[in-house]
Design a protein that fits this description.
single chain, 364 residues, alpha+beta, Beta Polymerase, domain 2, Methane Monooxygenase Hydroxylase, Chain G, domain 1, 2 domains, seven-stranded mixed beta sheet
Length: 364
């Protein structure tokens, strides 16, 4: 199935999301493009010894998983069916404001703790297929319960396939630990993909830097500005994730085990590495912008220098031509037999003298 992602480029400085102004809190409104396809529900129910997959599943199939003894991962793709979302939220006891935030797909990464579940928002950033294709962004919402984890995505396709394969094949600790470890694994997959995106941005920065060093053009400056906008967007969505992971680690909730907290601290280090890389890239782009302006200024100065030298050489010649071009009746030099040749000799001497003077001063 083809996937239409959302580019981070925003034509407006502010765009209101969510229900219309004046709506009661918890109003469920889907403000994105209208869709008629069915919501995709994928269930992965597992224990240390077995794993059961149900795809596609019905919303009624998820109701029994709330109090199941096994660990359940309910992956819901599609937010356009607000009635189905309300039905799901009512059965799982989700707060109406949580459901509203799930539909508002421009949330900052955040963590909200309720009585028996966590609500987490993260941003999935995926690099384009080509350097000229901007990266794409999608909000992923998580509901972490005692024995279940629910993920909400707006459109099909994600970066979670390696996690699904590990759970399905029972590799590592994927089945032995609870849904909190599954949450860590999914967040880790999102953060790992940040590094892929950063590598793509680094390659583009290197290409622009080489172009500016050789022969800068206004197009190169446009590319620098575009990269800076993308980095600002990445930073805005990665920086809050640091607090989300840190809050999960420091929470005293029984929903997060001590064994999983060790992995969360490692994930926090990865997020910090991403933030540091973004800051370094931002500094590099600032230096590149200064390099571009400096290079353009140097080229302008070189052009002005050449034009000034040419003007300096031709100023005395213009003076001589102006003097003998005046329409006075009596010019004694004009009647000399060698006056024309003398004029060119004097002009040549003047030019050679000026060139020698400029070279001696190091201006040529």
């Amino acid at each position: 199935m083809s996937r239409k992602r959302h580019s981070p480029a925003m034509p407006r400085l502010f765009r209101r999301q969510g229900p219309p102004a004046g709506s009661p809190p918890g109003t469920l409104v889907y403000n994105r493009e209208k869709r008629t396809d069915a919501v995709s529900i994928r269930i992965m129910d597992y224990s240390p010894g077995e794993c059961h997959l149900r795809t596609p599943a019905r919303i009624e199939d998820t109701f029994a998983l709330r109090d199941s003894e096994s660990v359940s991962w309910i992956d819901i793709e599609g937010l356009h069916d607000t009635e189905l979302l309300a039905q799901f939220g009512e059965h799982f006891g989700l707060h109406p404001l949580v459901l509203e935030d799930i539909l508002n797909t421009h949330q900052r990464p955040k963590l909200e703790e309720y009585d028996d579940y966590f609500y987490i928002v993260a941003r999935m950033l995926i690099a384009g297929k080509t350097p000229d294709d901007p990266f794409h962004s999608e909000q992923v919402s998580f509901i972490l319960g005692k024995r279940f984890l629910v993920t909400f995505q707006e459109i099909p396709g994600d970066v979670f396939d390696p996690v699904r394969q590990r759970v399905e094949q029972g590799r590592g600790k994927s089945r032995r630990l609870g849904p909190d470890y599954l949450l860590y694994s999914l967040l880790d997959a999102i953060v790992d993909n940040y590094f892929v995106l950063l590598q793509s941005i680094a390659d583009r920065i290197e290409a622009v830097e080489q172009a500016i060093a050789v022969k800068p053009t206004p197009h190169d400056l446009d590319r620098v500005h575009r990269l800076r906008r993308e980095l600002v967007y990445v930073r805005r969505n990665v920086w809050p994730l640091r607090d989300v992971v840190s809050s999960l680690d420091r929470s005293g909730s029984p929903l997060v085990s001590e064994e999983t907290r060790v992995y969360l601290r490692d994930l926090h280090d990865h997020v910090m590495q991403v933030i540091e890389a973004v800051e370094n890239f931002h500094d590099v782009l600032t230096s590149m912008q200064d390099l571009y302006l400096s290079t353009i200024s140097n080229r302008t100065n070189e052009i002005i220098r050449v034009l000034t030298i040419i003007s300096t050489i031709f100023v005395p010649l213009t003076f001589l031509a102006g003097v003998y071009g005046m329409n006075f009746h009596y010019f004694p030099e004009l009647t000399w037999r060698w006056s024309y040749l003398g004029f060119w000799v004097v002009s040549a001497v003047v030019v050679i003298s000026l060139l020698a003077f400029l070279r001696r001063r190091g201006w040529l």
